[in-house]
Specification:
Blueprint: H1 5-8, E1 21-25, H2 29-41, E2 45-49, H3 52-62, E3 66-70, H4 78-89, E4 95-100, H5 107-114, E5 119-122, H6 127-134
Parallel strand pairs: 1-2, 1-3, 3-4, 4-5
Helix pairs in contact: 3-4
Length: about 140
Amino acid sequence: MKPDVRTSSSNALSPAPRSLRVLVVDDERDTVLTLMELLRDEGHETRGVYTGRQALQAIRDLNADAVIMDIAMPEVTGWDTAREIREAIGAARPLLIALSGQYTKGADRVLSQLAGFDYYLTKPCDPNVLLALLTSVKPSAA
């Protein structure tokens, strides 16, 4: 007697993955595309922009749940953009994750206090760490 394939499926009781809307902001095109691909592979909706000036409008257009942003961009830095996001959106702002090619001791605390970043990751970041940080985010209503 053959087992019933329909009832033996392990996917039948698996919860649906939580899909987030994530904005990636970096002046390095390869970084934006790589992070967007990683996030899409995990089922998240993504959008990428290449300047801090584009970020605030993109957050609103996407209704972003999280923003991954380089802090060392030309013209408008990630620091300035994060401050602007905090002032414009306030407590309802998305999770802000800073990316940097350099790490200085205490930078995570300074960024959190001055610019409002929630987390600080160095480039290249470990994809597992980034994805773990996103598990704490509750998707907002579309």
